[in-house]
Amino acid sequence: MTAPAPHENTGEGCLAAALRTAADCFYTVPGYPVTTLGEACGAVNTINEKVALEYALGDAVSGRRACVILKNVGLNACMDPLMNVAVQGLSAGAVIVVGDDTEVKGSQNAQDSRCIGRYAEVPLFSPEADDLTTVAEAAFQASEHFSRIAMVRVTPAVLATAAEGTPPARTDHKGTIADSSLTMRGRAEAAEMRQRAMVRWAQEQPVPALVYPPHQGRVPSCSTVSPPAGDPETMHSRGFARTFCRECPYIPLLEVMQEKNLHPVLDIGCGLLAKNPPWEVGITGYGLGSSPAVAATSTGVALIGDYALMHSGLSALADIREKGLPVLVVIVENGVLGMTGKQAAPDILPYINWASPVIVTAVDTDAIRAALVPEDRLKCVIIRGTCPDGEDHETVEC
Hints:
GO terms for molecular function: metal ion binding; oxidoreductase activity; thiamine pyrophosphate binding. This is Thiamine pyrophosphate-dependent enzyme. Pfam families: TPP_enzyme_C (PF02775). One of its GO terms (biological process) is organic acid metabolic process. It is a single chain. By secondary structure, the protein is an alpha/beta fold. It has two domains: 1-234, Thiamin diphosphate (ThDP)-binding fold, Pyr/PP domains (Rossmann fold, 3-Layer(aba) Sandwich); 239-397, Rossmann fold (3-Layer(aba) Sandwich). It contains 16 helices and 17 strands. A seven-stranded mixed β-sheet has the order 2-1-3-4-6-5-7, sandwiched between helices. A six-stranded parallel β-sheet has the order 10-9-11-12-16-15. Strand 1, helix 2 and strand 2 (44-45) form a beta-alpha-beta unit. Helix 1 (11-22) crosses helix 7 (135-146) and helix 3 runs parallel beside helix 5. The longest helix is centred in the middle third of the chain and has 21 residues, at 184-204. It is globular and about 65 Å long. The N and C termini lie far apart (53 Å).
C-alpha cells in the first residue's frame, strides 16, 4: 500500500523522506504528534510500543535497519528493551522517533524525552528544521557505530515548520552483537567501553542536532559497572560458565534444539543458560517477555518461560497472531520462577488456549522432536516439567 503523502515542504515531510531513505522497516503506535509521520513512512501498527520495539530489534539482529515511531508517553512502555540493547548489542541500526507533545494537546501528561538519552546511554538527536534531512541517517549510523538504539526527538513545532531538502545517501555500517563468550558482567563492561567511545565521538567535533552525549562538559555514566583495566570479563577469564541444574528435566529440549540446529531468541530466566557451554544454543533476548516478538522478525524461534510469558509476552503473541507471522514459541512450563527462589507462577493454559498449543512432557524426547517443527503460522509448544527440589545451577569449567 502506498504511504500517504505528508504535508509538502514541512518538517514532517522532510523527516518522513529522510526516514524512508535510511530505514528498511517501520513500526508505530499512532498518537499525537506523530500519527501522520508514521502513516507517511508506511509504518506497521502494533498492539503496543514494547512489541513495536521488539519487532524492530528482531530486524536489527537480522541486518535490517528498523525505525519505531511513537509519542512521548508511549516511550515509557519501551524502557525494558531500550535499556537492554546497549548491553546486548545489534547488527543493523535501530532508531526510535519520539514525538513530545509539548503543549499537552493530545496526551495526559507532558514529558521531555531528551532526558532518556542519558538514562539509557543512547545517542539522542533533537533536530531543528535545518537538521531534518540529515538526522535520520546520522541516527542510524550512530546506532550502528555504538551498537545501541539511537533516538530522534521531535515536537509539533518542528514537524509543522517550513522545511525542505534532499536526504543524504544511505551508508550502512555493521553493529556488534554481544560476544557469546562474555559473562553478563563482561557484557555490561563492554557496553560501558562503547559508551565512553560514544562520549569521545560527541566531544571531538560538533554533531548536528545531537543532545546526548553533549559536545562539552563532563558526562557521568549511569552504569554501576566501570570499564575494566583490560578486556571485559569472559567465561574463560572467570574460569567457569553457569549451566542448568544437574537433574534439570529440560535437558532433552536442549538436546533436540541442538540436533535440529534451531536458534531460539532466549528470554530472561533459566533459558538464558542455554547460550552458555556446553549447550551454546540461541541468542540473548532484550528483556523479560521479549523473545516472541524479537524472534518473529529474526530467527523464527523463541524460548520463553511460563512466568516471562505472563509477565509481558502475551501481548506479543496476540500481535503475532493478528499479523499471521510464522514463529515457533517454545514455552518452558515449570510452574515456578526458577531463578528467584521458585515462587509460584500462574497456570498459562487458560490465557493461551486460543493458540491451540501443543503440550508435551519434558522427558519425552520423541514428542519434543516431533513438536519442534516450525510452521507457516504462530505455533506454541508447551514443555511441561518439574524443577528438582534442593538443586542449584551447576558450573562448567572453561
